[in-house]
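SAMPLE LOG
Freezer: B-3
Tube label: C17
Construct: single chain, 369 aa
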Amino acid sequence: MKNSQDQEYLDIYISKVKDRAEKMLGYPIARDFDYSELYQLLKYPLNNLGDPLVESTYDLNSRSIEREVIKFFCDLFDAPKDNSWGYVTNGGSEGNLYALYVARELYPNGIVYFSESTHYSAQKNIHLLNMSCISIRSQKNGEIDYEDLKEAVHQNRQYPAIIFANIGTTMTEAKDDIFKIKEALKISAIRNSYIHCDAALAGTYLSILECEPKFNFAAGADSVAISGHKFIGSPIPCGVVIVKKSYRDRIGQTIPYIGTIDTTITGSRNGHSPVFMWYAIKKLGHEGLKSRAIESMEMAEYVETELNKIGLNAWRNKNSITVVFDKPKTEICKKWQLASENNIAHIICMPGISKKTVDECLLDIKNNR
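STRUCTURE (predicted):
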């Protein structure tokens, strides 16, 4: 930097980032990644504008790598071999927006059903798309109330049903059961339906660990969205959305200027994120990803046990790395960046969180009760 004050400001900012990264336990961000081998690519403006399966006249891109990432998640979510498509997004919210966009094009008069525990981006996306919607009650653990869903669907059985299912809610990591949702639709003889699974945090490790109940395409999903910067980890927010290719074909438009098809939400798309995701997948492999998932589950079990020893009524949903407990003092939540809602807070045991860091947080909570 030419200006010494600007350099000092930058140095202070970097120091703050390092400190806050060490004390982030309430948000789902993995921090055990190392992409130093890819830093040389930051010199280049990689842009994956347009459809990842169709080459463009803009040739400074990572499309070939993006296609491998898409294939990994298509296989992971058991998507139809000859009828699947996807792209690397800017994050889970964009993946959810894309899925709802596809559902609206399929069923313009459809009603979106989502639980009150659904991520805030869902209602924003529904508003942007001008879709009709009904909020469904949640159970105490954050899972959708299936009886309330049955009643709402039955009262509106003349309309197509678009289900926004949570595969890990924001606060309690509750998972909506696709099989029970399908049963609710079947009872009211709903002929036209669409099920989207928002699996931002949990989707990758639940699938790798082959947890039940399934939420993949074989189980009845029409689309699945995940966040890449959460369980896998990335310095840049990103995600993946997978849908049936026949759905994508309904909205694609050929754009001569870029020599490809416009099938995504944004025009220009980050070309570096697919490289980060590809690198992590290749470096870790299926077994490496599985080991990280198991370690996170074991850490969550440890945190749950220790918090209960303190007397904070800690609990977890099944196959969850999110530990919910009585909200501690505000200064503790701020120091350790513990997300809270009403009278509860949570610690999310992401890959990269050390036992030392967790123990320091637990000691702080204990000493400040």
